[in-house]
Amino acid sequence: MWRSGAITSEILYSTKVDAKTDEDWLPLEFIIDQLEPINDDALTESRTSVDPDTAPAALGRPALNSIGTVLLIGGLGFAIYYWFFYDTTVTVPSTTLFGETIGGGRVHNIGLMQNRQNGLIISAAVAFAGLVCVLFAQFSGRKR
After folding, report:
1. In this structure, is residue 1 part of a structural domain?
2. pLDDT (tens digit, 9 = 90+) per residue, 83-120?
3. Is the dihedral of CA 12, 13, 14, 18 positive or negative?
């Protein structure tokens, strides 16, 4: 490790010139030779060490956890809506022909059935993305 602040502008633009060149800056090898190494033990002693047994548990990434929770709940909510409450039927008008009533009631519309299928697929994908975000946020702060 090299001492912080050891390279100054005076060293970089010194008037001492290497014998091989006549430029006004010093070669990198000369600057490195001028620096004094410091003791690595002094650095490790000055750093605070954290005991993993007494350190609080990592919270993960709270923003990712929040976004994942919103996506998961929203995706599940829309999946429930499309599965249970989305109506795919339309009314058919009734017609009386020769005394017989034809039509009436409700029939399934293929377009609405496809909208329901698309809604289920997209909401399941959003819920899955939210689950992945929540799990990633929970496990990203832990040591392996």
Report:
1. no
2. 999 999 999 999 998 888 888 889 999 999 999 999 99
3. positive
